[in-house]
Amino acid sequence: MTRVSRIALFALLAALGSVVALPLPARAGNDGVVPAHDTKNSSLTTARIDEQIGAQVPLDTVFRNEDDQPITLRECIGDKPTILVPVYYRCPMLCTKILNGLVETMRDMPKDFSIGQQFNVVTVSMDPKEHGGLAKEKRAAYVGEYGRPGAENGWRFLTGTKESSTALLSAVGFRYEFDKMLKEYDHPSGLVILSPAGKVTRYFYGISYDGEFEVSENASWAGKGPRPELTKEELNVRTEKRRNFTRPTTTLRLSLIEAADGKGGSLLDKLTLLCYRYDALHKGYSLNVLRAVQAGGVLTLLLIGTGIFLALRRERRSRTLPPIALPEGGGGAGATPPTALPSGGTA
Questions:
Q1: What is the pTM of this model?
Q2: Per 3-state DSSP, what percentage of the chain is helix, strand, and coil (rounded to 5)?
Q3: Are the beta carbons of 259 and 202 closer than 8 angstroms?
Q4: DSSP symbol at 115
Q5: How far apart are CA 13 and CA 2, in angstroms?
Q6: d(CA 83, CA 96)
Q7: pLDDT tens digits for range 253-295
């Protein structure tokens, strides 16, 4: 074996050794596949909301009120549509924005649509270590910021055991986890609307729950078939153009009225809910085309029925009129018809 051959052999062995020394992916098996129990289960650890429309929340679950006294969820809902707000009170950022956005939206509602009257609000801490002292401070601050009388009777800031908060938040599909390194909770931002019977009727996401929002270019194309290929410049032009168009977002008030089967709303609200339906794709109310067609059909039938009624009525009245009296002698065989021309006339 020549010197060059020996060097080549050593190089080959070194390369093989380095490959063998490389770390394998997370404890893979002999077939190279990581066992399922070693992988991170996203369904258990990812903070998100799994919508559970129609789910029943555990009304008899016991929490602690702002004075650390036991109170059930049923007492907090009080047979009214309710906004459920999952937070934790020492949250450094996101939970404060959620509550601020909610207060701002509720203050924009009409004066005759307030907390404690038409609806209630239940704020629940997901942190079992929190107690009434901090909850009471939060309640005083936000009820004061809301600034309407009677709100203190309808807005609860609850704390509870891990079992109670888990039972409630699991029922509404609110997934969260505790970050042991940061000592904070990783959780989504959103509200849940409950009916007076405690059933989930709607979800609101983000930190703002009313006003207007910008329709994104991607959202505007949803449901319109395959999208044509656009250059980056064309897409920028379209996006810029759409910034001038906004549409009303989901109205929290309408959702509360809808959750109560129309109770608590004005006649206009009920008519609006009759003709509009919730559009989950665009997170807002849009015209209910089927209802519009039905209304048009009913209106057409009413117009046709009214026309037929008037025609029949006119015909019946013409039959009951007395016969027209003819002039004397006008009935004889030699009588001159009234339309006869005078003698010597020309036609």
A1: 0.62
A2: 40, 20, 40
A3: yes
A4: B
A5: 17
A6: 16
A7: 888 988 887 666 666 676 666 666 666 666 666 666 666 677 7
